[in-house]
Amino acid sequence: MTLPVQFAQRMRALLDVEADAFLAALEQPPRAGLRVNTLKLAPDHLLDLLPASLTPLPWCPTGFLVQGDEPLGKHPYHAAGLYYLQEPSAMAVAEALAPRPGDLVLDLAAAPGGKSTHLASLMGDEGLLVANEVETSRTRALAENLERWGVRQAVITNDDPRRLAERWGPVFDRVLVDAPCSGEGMFRKSPAALAQWSEKLVEGCSLRQRRLLDTAAELVRPGGWLAYSTCTFAPEENEAVIAAFLARHAGFELRPLTLTGAALGRPDWLPDELARPDLSHTARLWPHRVTGEGHFVALLQRAEGPKTMTPRAKVKDAPRPVRAAWRAFVQATLGMDPVKDAVLTTRGAHVYALPTKALDMERVKTVRAGLWLGTLERGRFEPSHSLALALRSTDEEGLEGWEARRLDFAPDDDRLRRYLQGHPLEEPGEAGWVLMTVSGYPIGWGRRAQGIIKNFYPKGLRWH
């Protein structure tokens, strides 16, 4: 790797005796990480199922370092959402924010969704997760990752953070700002980040990050928490952004982070007018100290005060024919209603189950209003891929109660490979919708007629 000369000089000046070890680490290949989806199974269970060598990560109880070069992104268990392939250091961020079940949580710059899926797991998929992404082109990946994760209590928005602050105000228990940055910490993984780096880029990112953090603060309820993270080493984008924020927001305080393996923040790298001792409460993950890329995390708490009323959704229930079609599908196919307590609503022909803590989404650009259950086609309900992946063994009787409408495969079954490629399958049995599963975990839908299962695996996800 050929590093920009100015970058290498900057890092030598900052790191001094550690500089050689740091620069040598950047010459090593990046390491892959894997995080278990605890909404679907326990980490120990995945370790028993998955033919891979995994080493636990010290800062994330559900995270592992992948040993070897197994193509885990092309394993059926990945398609079923049993794990997420994530850069190891990035798993520290959601752990630092530590949302609890029932919280109202906002991921302000959520795509592609790694940290959002982590937040949903820590929340136990209880409460409400708002995953927002400003760039429209990035919302598809965000939706696909949350869909594969099987998240129910979430909405996906595509709006400007300033508009969200004006619409909702300080109502969130926890807000995450994973800020767009110069990407220095991703040089080993991203040739694009390496090619576009410049000191001018660092300066520009710092200005945008300060504005974004100011806006995020307006969305944190009194007593709530705000996490700020980047994947860069530059103090201008890290400690300096936090120092400037604290100077403008007396109602926020830095809280110490205890992330095993992380180093303390560096207030000594800032000019005297910004340096303050509490900046050492922030955390840095360095590639020469841990097995991962570069990350910076800061955790702030807002002072207690009068709480603002949360603007709850005012949504009419879905029309009677829609609810009747859903009930007919549930009775014929599942035998139980996985969203029996949810309000159903429609957007065009799409049917959604609203989260139990749904916010008022009026005048908010919304990609998904909740769990997409399916589509009403000529009066009949057609289930979505989202619904299949959101079904869990903890739903009432569990997957064991769905035997009549389920076709289960071993991960190495050739029929499963053909299904994931989009082919129909010859399988005798009762006509109707069939839940396709791998080792008991839902992976998609088929519809059987005259012994042939028509393939409903989404075309954009099919294996080639």
Q: Return the CATH class of the domain at 5-302.
A: Alpha Beta
User: What's the average pLDDT?
Assistant: 94
Question: Spans with pLDDT under 50 lasting ≥5 residues?
Answer: none
What is the CATH architecture descriptor of the domain at 5-302?
3-Layer(aba) Sandwich
Number of helices: 14
CATH homologous superfamily heading of the domain at 5-302: Vaccinia Virus protein VP39
Q: Which structural class do the helices and strands define?
A: alpha+beta
Looking at the structure, the CATH topology of the domain at 5-302 is Rossmann fold
Span of the ends, CA to CA: 32 Å
Could you please describe the fold and organization of this structure?
By secondary structure, the chain is an alpha+beta fold. The protein has a domain at 5-302: Vaccinia Virus protein VP39 (Rossmann fold, 3-Layer(aba) Sandwich). It is 28% helix and 25% strand. Strands 5, 6, 7, 8, 9, 10, 11, 12, 13 and 16 form a ten-stranded mixed beta sheet that branches. A five-stranded mixed beta sheet has the order 19-21-22-23-20. The longest helix has 19 residues, at 199-217.
